[in-house]
Amino acid sequence: LSISPKSIEHNITPPSTPSPPPASLSPIPLRYPDTLDTLIEIRDSESKGLGVFACRDIPPGTVLLCEAPIVTLIDTGSRADPLDAAVNALSPLQKKSFLSLHSFSRNKNESHSRSIVYSNGYSIMHDPATGVFETASRINHSGVPNSSYGWRESSGRMVFWNRFKLLEGEEVTVDYGHKKKYLAKIY
């Protein structure tokens, strides 16, 4: 017996956007509030590389992550690729984190940095840009995700929340917004 996810209603209203970090915090943290290692953790995900997991049972509608991108790519159409400059401007720790993200490319002429963006980026700023995140880019896809996300222009951050109760040790998943055939073809 199988249950179609479409036959089950889960009307979880997105939680309110967390307050921005206080101006007194310097440098401004990527994650605020920081839920890494208290609510969620990054660890190996069977056959998916790294993933994000619940550190404890989490009730539905909880903000799991509110994070600013470490790299933002706005393609202006110019022949010069702005990505290399953005990656080179990262701190050594952020650059190491960025370069450790999964990269897949079928195009042998594509730079390593660009394949990381294409493999891990989220549409931000209402679609004119792509953001790569230190933690959020580790959240894996599911056709039946347990979490959702949305860009918050007011804070310049992506907010992730769970649609269902998450159990301790359960992987956080989102729908990347692509059909299964597209994902298989591209990744």
Task: Based on the model shown, name its key terms.
3-stranded antiparallel sheet; 10 strands; 23% strand; single chain; 4 helices; disordered N terminus; 187 residues; alpha+beta
Description:
- This protein is α+β, with helices and mostly antiparallel strands and 187 residues long.
- The protein has helices at residues 83-88, 92-99, 112-120, 180-186; strands at 40-45, 49-54, 63-67, 71-73, 122-124, 129-132, 140-141, 147-152, 157-162, 173-174.
- The strands form four sheets. The chain has a three-stranded antiparallel β-sheet with strand order 3-9-8, with no helix packed on it. Strands 4-6-5 form a three-stranded antiparallel β-sheet. Strands 1-2 form a two-stranded antiparallel ribbon.
- Strand 1 (40-45) and strand 2 form a beta hairpin.
- The two termini are 31 Å apart.
- Residues 1-9 have low confidence and may be disordered.
Write a compact overview of the structure shown.
About 15% of the residues lie in helices and about 25% in strands. It is of the alpha+beta class and about 190 residues long.
SS class: alpha+beta
Number of helices, where a helix is a run of at least 4 consecutive DSSP H or I residues? 4
The end-to-end distance, rounded to whole angstroms, is: 31 Å
Q: Radius of gyration in whole Å, from Cα?
A: 17 Å
Any idea what the shape is?
globular
Strand line-up of the largest beta sheet: 3-9-8
Mean of pLDDT: 87
